[in-house]
């Protein structure tokens, strides 16, 4: 056992106190950086089923892809929802896409463009169906 004098003890205590104080200042000045969030699979992923039909979990994503492929923006026109739903069914078949229920697609189209009642029928506002010759590219649109 080594005996130390009072001055050495005070010196050691001051040294450790100073080191502890310096350490706490370092931790306060440079906190650990947050780790980046781990990427999680998107809810809107497109996947293939065993019968090779593309499906998506997000009706809005599918409505956007359909709109890019088959609808044209217009300022003064609207498209009858029945015609749009028929074009959507054709688009799904030609692109091997799992068709959403009509209510889900209509709701997504309402969110994107607006859907209103016009007499007995409903219309999608501000769009018209593209002519067959205007439809270029893959029919599946953004899902590929």
What CATH architecture label of the largest domain applies?
A: Orthogonal Bundle
The rough form would be described as rod-shaped
What's the average pLDDT? 74
Q: And the CATH topology of the largest domain?
A: Arc Repressor Mutant, subunit A
CATH superfamily of the largest domain: Winged helix-like DNA-binding domain superfamily/Winged helix DNA-binding domain
Number of helices: 4
Helix content: 40-55%
Low-confidence stretches: 39-50, 137-144
Main sheet: strand order:
3-5-4
Structural domain count = 2
Encode the helix/strand succession as letters: HEEHEHHEE
Biggest sheet, open or closed, and with what strands and sense?
3 strands, antiparallel
**CATH C-level label of the largest domain:** Mainly Alpha
**Structural class of the secondary elements?**
alpha+beta
Describe this structure in words.
With 144 residues, the protein is of the alpha+beta class. It folds into two domains: 1-31; 55-143, Winged helix-like DNA-binding domain superfamily/Winged helix DNA-binding domain (Arc Repressor Mutant, subunit A, Orthogonal Bundle), CATH 1.10.10.10. Helices cover 43% and strands 20% of the residues. The protein contains four helices and five strands. It has helices at residues 6-29, 59-70, 81-95, 102-112, and strands spanning 46-48, 54-56, 71-80, 115-118, 121-129. Strands 3-5-4 form a three-stranded antiparallel sheet. A two-stranded antiparallel sheet has the order 1-2. Helix 2 (59-70) packs across helix 4 (102-112).
